[in-house]
Amino acid sequence: MPSTNVKAPPQPDAALSHGLKQRHLSMIALGGVIGAGLFVGSGAGIAAAGPSIVLAYALSGVLVMLVMRMLGEMSAAYPSSGSFSAHAERAIGPWAGFTAGWSFWVLLCTAVGLEGIGAAKIVTGWLPGTPEWVWVALFMVVFCGANLAAVRNFGEFEFWFAALKVGAITLFLVLGVLAVAGVLPGTDSPGTSHLTDFLPHGGQGLVVGLLASVFAYGGLETVTIAAAESENPVQGVARAVRTAMWRIAVFYIGSMAVVVTLVPWNAPEVVTRGPYVAALDRLGIPGAGQLMNVVVLVALLSAMNANIYGSSRIAYSLVERGHGPKALGRVSGGVPRRAVLASCVFGFLCVVLSYWRPDDVFPWLLNMIGAVILVVWIIIAVSQLRLRRRLEREAPERLTVRMRAYPYLTWVALAGMAGVLVLMARQPETRVQLYSTGGMTLVLAAAGLLWQRARGRS
């Protein structure tokens, strides 16, 4: 049975250091919302949905904001590097924490490999003839070394990565708004001419765009994991969650609106070169393609660094709660170094599989993690429903961050997640991902239940 003791003060992970400063956490929260998915994956969504991609990002953005509010409420009450996995264990039971934690660990480790491959492709475009795997290995060694040394190294990398991403997207938005308004020198405003065909492929195109937008928001959970190693975990989580709404609105929805206003949705370069490069080319900015390649490279490296950090802390928390091999829980210098190494090795193994078995094993792995984020969000919502009632009854002083209109908005979020699952089941491209993720989740849940019963008997 999950624990009902909520009267003791919240205890962050004692063995980990608290080397993240508030400036690190603030910039991680700010930059974490600007992921590689926004720069790389949004072109296919625009091609499918047309100008209605703005509506798709707005709808999925509302869902993400509700999830972040729920997660923030629990993380402020119970700061932990295990984040939603620890909350699920407390609210539902050890098997739920086991399932959420290890499925998310597989997702993050696989993403580390994918981001390394994406970054290597950009560099080999600048330096043709150099092997991709060498660059992937170099990036892996750099970020693995940074995460092995001290948590402040991760914080410094993310601080400057986030600063570059925020600066780039802000400059893009400023130039785009000036161009749309017709006050950018040398550029004629397109007005609303590119927005007239709002739903070029009807509702089906909007659905495809909606599914693409949902998965572009991945990475927001890192700030609640990092908060446990900050100087003031509760304050850091509260500040990050409370500013999530305007960050999502400005960076995602705002930039999509600028892109589809400046560039025809069916322009080939939106997919081939990326929507941001296409928009900057329309503004006649020289070297726009290479400039955005640098920004995308930074976004990929930032995500790689954050995912190594997040996966290692999730693994450490799982082991601390008795859900994995004790060897991974060893901490030295305030860092779970074995968990960092295990996450990096798994990530590099994914890279090896992409070269060795690109037609069977690697696609199977990608399908298996395709809908993990939705599984995690559902577990977050169910956990918040249960923990909120318990906190209001036994420790209301811990509710420094509150989910608005509880429990109604939580149920609205769950209905939205169920709707996304139904849409995935109806689309041939995403149906395989849904079923593969479902299979992995069931296997992990069964393993978690067996583990829970074995521990109960012992």
From TrEMBL:
Superkingdom of origin organism: Bacteria
Where it sits in the cell: the answer is: Membrane
Main localization is: membrane
Segments traversing the membrane: 27-48, 54-71, 92-113, 133-151, 163-184, 204-228, 249-267, 287-308, 339-356, 362-385, 406-426, 432-451
Q: Which GO terms describe its cellular component?
A: membrane
Which BP terms in the Gene Ontology apply to this protein?
A: amino acid transport; transmembrane transport
The protein's UniProt keywords, in alphabetical order, are: Amino-acid transport, Membrane, Transmembrane, Transmembrane helix, Transport
Which InterPro entries does this chain map to? AA-permease/SLC12A_dom, Amino_acid_permease_CS
Q: Does the keyword NADP apply?
A: no
Please give the Gene3D superfamilies that the UniProt record associates with this protein. Amino acid/polyamine transporter I
Pfam families to which the protein is assigned, alphabetical: AA_permease
Q: Which residues form the Amino acid permease/ SLC12A domain?
A: 24-442
Q: How does it sit in the membrane?
A: Multi-pass membrane protein
PANTHER family in the cross-refs: GABA PERMEASE, GAMMA-AMINOBUTYRIC ACID PERMEASE
Q: Which family does it belong to?
A: Belongs to the amino acid-polyamine-organocation (APC) superfamily. Amino acid transporter (AAT) (TC 2.A.3.1) family.
Question: What's this protein's name?
Answer: Amino acid transporter
Q: Which organism is it from?
A: Streptomyces echinoruber
Upper taxonomic lineage: Bacteria, Bacillati, Actinomycetota, Actinomycetes, Kitasatosporales
